[in-house]
Amino acid sequence: MRYTFLILALFFGLFATSAQVRKKSARSFVLKGIVVEDDTNKPIAKVNVETDDGEYTTTNAGGQFSISAEIGDELTIKSDAFKTVYYTIKDEQDITVRVQKAEEEPYPVTTAKDRSTSNSTLFKTYIDSANYFLKTDAAKSIGYVTKALQPFGGTSASKEQTAIAFETLGDINIHWGQPDLAIDNFKRSISEKNTIDRRIKLAKAFMRNRNYQESISAYKELLDSKLGNYQKVVVYEGLGDNYKATNDAPNSVANYQKGLSVAQKHLITPKITDLNSKIAEAYSESGAVAEATQYFDNSLTLAKKENPKRAVEEKNKVADFYNRNQNFDEEIRLRSETLDELEDIETDTIATNSKESSPLTPQRQNYYIANAYIAQDKYNEAIPYLERSINEAEANNDLVVEKDATRKLSEVYKGIGDFGKAAENYERYVAVVDELYIKKEQELSQATRFNKEIALKQNRITSLENERELNESRYKLAFENQELIQKNNKVQQWVIGSLVLVAMLLLFAAYTQYKSVKQQRFANNALALKSLRTQMNPHFIFNALNSVNSFIAMSDERAANKYLSEFSQLMRNVLENSDEDFIPLSKEIELLELYVKLEHFRFKDKFDHEITVDENLKISEFVIPPMLLQPYVENAVWHGLRYKEEKGHLSIDFKQTDTETVTITITDDGIGRKKSKALKTENQKKQKSKGMGNIQRRISILNEMYKDKVDVAVQNVFDNEEGTKVVLTLKKD
């Protein structure tokens, strides 16, 4: 094993030396190319062309150039007339570089009248565009923020708009790994308008920049603020992350637990999964394997209920845990499941900043499985996974995994004594390392260029802010001039104010008149209701006295006395309620029970009866016009049940359908409305028309006064048109 390390050390020394002199080797050649405009194919002269090792040339009148270069070099083609293009040389073939004109996005032309509205709309458009390109093109995203902050129509961005713009800049910085710039931008955003979410973002940026104590202080200050439930979970999670980063496991777990309690109480499902996972990681790092296992089991179960991406992320995390604890069988099982599930998930939804940096790729999972077999000295089982890892890495241009897997495969073949394949794979490994070195060089160059571009754009925004502050001073002077103009217009304002006052007085007079008419109409309706009630009472008394008369005619003095006693009690209740527009539903039920008892006393051989009140009905909360139900019950007895040959049945049900409505159903199995009408005399028809007409008018007036308080539906019970059901719906208000 020591011999292998010596060989590798010697190889890297030789490789480093060769890399240092690579630019001076004989591999360079003269690259020829042409620069043309993309839309018109027109050649462009005087274009700057240079390589990343300092070679420089320009295009001639025909747009052509020649330059000394090597495969892997990066060309920079730039001019003030078009967007800069970066081209990586892949072979010695002549190249054609197509460029696009650098056109500034024009501002829309508006009038002074709609400047403020257009400014707000344009600002939102630019910020939306910045957010759209935030994760794909940092330069373009920052460019849109710059445009959003530029003055438009003589109007600078407001404090709220400035706060949003700098918050967006901070979001861009965080995504592209520039937490130091993010801190400055979030601070500027908060200085313009302080919000909880912006303070949370600042605390996160502190942590990303390894300013752990500043982050902890920011999170603790947030706990003293009025936080929403989700915000509270995020703050506790942030504190846990900081303590975990500073190796303070007890405080880390304590804060994660607090966040988990809030998330569980308010069913914030994604955070419940995340916090179980983070608690497990904290326990794992502190050596509490049993506790870590318990929480990882929880997080795995919860993650499976979320989206497939979250599930595979958690499986990978738990597989890493098993690897650290040398539970290789469980690690292999989870990584095998992850491989199967990755086939159904698009790679772009898994990768973070680049596909190479994500562990959730087939090449990395195969590599991890192979390592788990190697750790158990199962070399033959590891070989297929290493080969699959290399093939996947090659297909996805993942040189890092290809390098590691190829080196590992060489070591495995050496371990099992197959030195031929070991040497073959070692040669492949050397070739990949060389290619990776070139790629890393390019990435460093691109990163340097990227950071330079971001810094320049950030400086542009800073100068815009300075310009805005200067403009605000100018606007202040303009406002002072405006105040002088307003003083000169005071006379006009007084005149306009007087006219407005007169108009308001006229409107008030009209409203008062309308209200008076409405009150008068209400009073008329109330009077009509009272009149109808006075008509109902004699009609009811007359019918009751007829019953007493029939008992006297039959010389049944005892029955007459009993009936008169019950009747007097009923009359006392009726008279007590005669002046009331509404009485409690309980009183109406009591009155109805007494009335039905009297009618049954007279026609006991004709019908049985029952009055049912739903036990859930809150009768104390409902009111009803007095004597509203009695006419329907009287019709059921006098015109339906008493003409029936066999004994009939009368049912009255009170049921609460919802908190605002009660349904009253009066059902009889009498001869029905059609037969009853045929049996009536002319005098009876007149009486029916008058009694039922009164009750219908009462309901109509009540609905007009109290907005559909009562609804009545009458229908037959049986298909032969016998029996009658009256359904009366009464609303609380």
TrEMBL record:
Position of the signal peptide: 1-21
GO CC annotations, alphabetized: membrane
GO function term, MF aspect, one: phosphorelay sensor kinase activity
InterPro entries assigned to the protein according to its UniProt record, in alphabetical order: Bact_2-comp_sensor_kinase, CarboxyPept-like_regulatory, HATPase_C_sf, Sig_transdc_His_kin_internal, TPR-like_helical_dom_sf, TPR_rpt
Coiled-coil boundaries: 447-474
Any matching Pfam family: His_kinase
Swiss-Prot/TrEMBL keywords: Coiled coil, Kinase, Membrane, Signal, Transferase, Transmembrane, Transmembrane helix
Residue ranges crossing the lipid bilayer per the database entry: 494-512
Keyword GTP-binding attributed: no
Chain ranges of the Signal transduction histidine kinase internal region domain: 529-607
Protein name: Histidine kinase
Organism of provenance: Marinirhabdus gelatinilytica
Organism taxonomic ancestry: Bacteria, Pseudomonadati, Bacteroidota, Flavobacteriia, Flavobacteriales
